């Protein structure tokens, strides 16, 4: 494992424990050259999941891209990165459990909105405004009214 600080390839495992309900292993490592510590995660390699975009193009599922879009929606909000990573884990696991190799981006967007609605309503509205491509203020107000009606 390459050290993120000095790029040395030699490190030793200091601590190992299950993570994410046993679906991965978290390892604390120490670089043998600079002696700094860093964390790595070991996960089971799964079959690639392809996302079918709105224009019917396909690309590999990228959990970092999903996390990035949620981070933007939650910017300057009191939502922890751990919470968002947990949401991404849940979404990815639910998509893997369907055993489908292709999933529509709209389905992923709906899953994100369902999760964000329970975590932070402002982040939910921010994500929905980009995801649903609100054309005008009326479509935005309609979404807010739906959110208020659910309370």
3D structure, described in words:
The chain has 151 residues and is an alpha+beta fold. Helices cover 45% and strands 22% of the residues. The protein has helices at residues 63-73, 81-97, 105-119, 121-131, 137-150; strands at residues 11-19, 24-31, 37-43, 50-52, 58-60, 102-104. The longest helix is centred in the middle third of the chain and has 17 residues, at 81-97. The mean pLDDT is 88.
Features:
3-stranded mixed sheet; 2 domains; alpha+beta; 151 residues
Set down the secondary structure blueprint.
Elements: E1 11-19, E2 24-31, E3 37-43, E4 50-52, E5 58-60, H1 63-73, H2 81-97, E6 102-104, H3 105-119, H4 121-131, H5 137-150
Parallel strand pairs: 4-6
Antiparallel strand pairs: 1-2, 2-3, 4-5
Helix pairs in contact: 1-2, 1-4, 2-3, 3-4, 4-5
What is the tally of helical segments? 5
Q: Helical amount among residues, as a percent range?
A: 40-55%
Order of helices and strands: EEEEEHHEHHH
Spatial extent as radius of gyration: 19 Å
| Uncertain runs | none
- Give me the secondary-structure category: alpha+beta
Q: State the separation between the terminal residues, measured CA to CA.
A: 49 Å
Number of DSSP strand runs: 6
What fraction strand?
A: 15-25%
Short description:
This protein is α+β, with helices and mostly antiparallel strands.
């Amino acid at each position: 494992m390459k050290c993120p600080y000095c790029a040395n390839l030699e490190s030793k495992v200091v601590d190992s424990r299950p993570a994410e309900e046993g679906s991965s292993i978290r390892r604390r490592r120490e670089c043998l050259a600079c002696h700094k510590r860093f964390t790595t995660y070991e996960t089971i390699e799964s079959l690639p999941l392809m996302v079918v975009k709105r224009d019917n193009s396909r690309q590999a599922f990228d959990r970092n891209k999903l996390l990035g879009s949620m981070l933007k929606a939650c910017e300057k909000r009191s939502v922890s990165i751990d919470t968002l990573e947990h949401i991404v884990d849940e979404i990815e696991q639910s998509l893997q459990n369907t055993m489908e190799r292709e999933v529509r981006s709209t389905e992923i967007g709906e899953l994100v909105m369902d999760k964000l609605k329970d975590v932070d309503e402002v982040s939910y509205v921010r994500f929905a405004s980009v995801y649903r491509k609100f054309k005008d203020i009326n479509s935005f107000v309609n979404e807010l009214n739906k959110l208020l009606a659910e309370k």
